[in-house]
Specification:
Length: 322
């Protein structure tokens, strides 16, 4: 889970005195003498975390341009830094909250809660009530029993069912009996799902939607792909455009009148974060950056393109180590 709760100062950096024993630089990285950190080595100073807002904004616009018929939202848990969230919100982005810490950060940033999809799979009654009282109106649930949490929810609150396609018919009927509005379905996919698996799951979800419409007359208006399209930034835009065409052929949004949602976080922020230690720089994944920020690392937020262009070799690869 990636939550960076500490923002930068107005001048673009937060200077923090790091004491011995604080979270050290990644021990997997070699020291200058080529050694790896050992159990008795003193922790190295925390690096400076540089967040390139124009690059994130460019990545997000690029993604939305590749999928103009889809409502692509930023997963705030990829990197919930207030400056980053505010920048994306100003650009018209919606958000997904997949962890309990994400919504408070979005609220402090001034994000419209009506543009937040609450998709925390571990949330239960009280946390969901807090969310809808804050103004969130769309929730993802992973268990039909969770529908009980929404009995008596305010008008406008709706749920997306993230269930096996063969279980959604019964769950939708139960929701109707409870007075809970089911707005649509959310895909349940493993993190390493292939494109073929994704397309098969979309097809199964559309079949379930058609069954519900035939048996009840109720038409579900949303299909949430979750993070299925999130991935290495080198996948944008050609891979996503091709995959998007395949999804669109299955969903046929113009005739089915269905809204397709998707979330992106890692792929949008991955190559916009740099760790600087002395004269050394390296790109970092959002989870590493978040942990360092919360541990007290200095943060520099770039609001204009001032950084050195990324080497061509680095542009062609992506790993969790940055």
């Amino acid at each position: 889970m990636s939550i960076a709760t500490r923002t930068a100062r107005p001048n673009g950096a937060t200077r923090t005195r790091v004491t011995a024993g604080a979270v050290a630089m990644d021990p997997a990285l070699p020291r200058r003498d080529g050694r790896r950190d050992g159990p008795h080595d003193a922790p190295r100073p925390l690096p400076v975390v540089v967040i390139d807002l124009p690059r994130v904004a460019h990545r997000f616009r690029e993604l939305r341009a590749a999928l103009p018929w889809m409502d692509v939202r930023f997963d705030a848990c990829a990197l919930a830094h207030p400056a980053l969230l505010a920048s994306l919100a100003a650009d018209g982005a919606g958000f997904v909250a997949t962890h309990e810490s994400a919504l408070p950060v979005l609220q402090r940033t001034g994000v419209d809660p009506a543009r937040v999809l609450h998709a925390d799979r571990w949330a239960r009654g009280s946390r969901r009530r807090d969310a809808w009282e804050a103004g969130v109106r769309l929730f993802v649930i992973d268990d039909a029993r969770d529908l009980d949490d929404f009995a008596g929810a305010p008008a406008g609150v709706a749920v997306l069912l993230r269930l096996h396609p063969l279980l959604v018919d019964e769950a939708e009927s139960r929701a109707h009996a409870l007075g809970v509005r089911v707005a649509g379905l959310s895909l349940r996919l493993p993190g390493d799902a292939s494109s073929a698996h994704l397309l098969d799951t979309v097809d199964a979800a559309m079949a379930a939607r058609a069954r519900i419409a035939r048996s009840t007359g109720r038409r579900l208006g949303i299909l949430d792909l979750g993070p299925a399209l999130d991935g290495p930034p080198t996948a944008y835009p050609h891979r996503l455009a091709a995959l998007g065409r395949s999804i669109r052929s299955l969903v046929a949004p113009a005739t089915s009148q269905i809204t397709v949602l998707a979330s992106a976080g890692r792929g949008v922020a991955a190559d916009a974060i740099t760790l600087v230690t002395g004269t050394a720089e390296r790109y970092a994944d959002p989870a590493t950056a978040s942990a360092l920020i919360d541990a007290g690392a200095e943060v520099v937020v770039l609001r204009a393109r001032r950084r050195i262009p990324r080497p061509a070799k680095a542009r062609s690869t992506w790993t969790s180590a940055g």
